[in-house]
Amino acid sequence: MSDCVLCPRACHVNRLAGQTGYCGQTAELMAARASLHYWEEPCISGTSGSGTVFFSGCNLRCVFCQNHNIALGKAGRVIAPEHLAEIFLQLQEQGANNINLVTPTHFLPQIVIALEQAKQKGLHLPIVYNTGSYESPEALRHLEGLVDIYLPDLKYFSPELSTAYSHTPDYFETACAAISEMYRQVGDPVIDEDTGLMQHGMIVRHLLLPGQTKDSKKILRYLHETYGDHIYISIMNQYTPLPQVADIEALNRTVTPEEYDRVLRFAERIGIERGFRQEGTTASESFIPEFDESGL
């Protein structure tokens, strides 16, 4: 981390010396919450919850992010990799279905250390890597054999959208290369027939943005044509306009039922069968946990 190129931003900063790149984090591992989380896809959360660890900082920092405070590194506390390993084991003791690493990219080396230590001490749960997908395939290869389930986003097809909202004109091609590497590692989904919980595989998430049904359709077509039924696709309508987008007219509203239904009908028409949809009114700040350092 003395010349950080962990993600495609390739900031080349010396994080060991306390410098920060785009993610806003030094080499000190920082997290904002560790707890059982019940709002993931059913095959991840189940009834017992997913053992989530929310890391501070982010290499995307989307303008509409629901985890805005931690993405900017304004919440969280410094913990050692050895302590993170203990947190994994505590979540396992609490009955978690899996260990869910949320926005972990910029701490990948420390997480690898913690996972290896926890597994040596008896951690046996599936490991979920929950990411915005602005990832380097070279960095992801360090996770091979450690991660069981990849939970990546595919946010944008349009470079205009990705530039405006995440400052990443190369988002689509970069994310697609990362998702390809993730699939190479974990392969087709494996679901436990007794519990309905995923043990291995990949779920690609796509969050609809208001007014962007055409972009969403292009993403769904790409995923289905590339992976067919070898992955699950989660089509989400929970976009919630938070105060930081009040001045961005295009983002300052929820997705309408008509927009969501249009995208769902398209998914059915092109033959997507392994997928998740959200029912009812899901746009709500109640889906956003308190980043109060609980569980750390």
Automatic annotation (TrEMBL):
Gene Ontology molecular functions: 4 iron, 4 sulfur cluster binding; metal ion binding; oxidoreductase activity
Keyword Coiled coil recorded: no
Positions that bind [4Fe-4S] cluster: C58, C62, C65
Keyword Metal-binding part of the UniProt annotation: yes
Gene3D superfamilies: Aldolase class I
Cofactor: [4Fe-4S] cluster
PROSITE patterns for the chain: RADICAL_ACTIVATING (PS01087), RADICAL_SAM (PS51918)
Transmembrane domains' residue ranges: none
Keyword entries, A-Z: 4Fe-4S, Iron, Iron-sulfur, Metal-binding, Oxidoreductase, S-adenosyl-L-methionine
Cofactor note: Binds 1 [4Fe-4S] cluster. The cluster is coordinated with 3 cysteines and an exchangeable S-adenosyl-L-methionine.
The organism's place on the tree of life at top rank: Bacteria
A Pfam family assignment: Radical_SAM
Family, per entry: Belongs to the organic radical-activating enzymes family.
Protein name as catalogued: Radical SAM protein
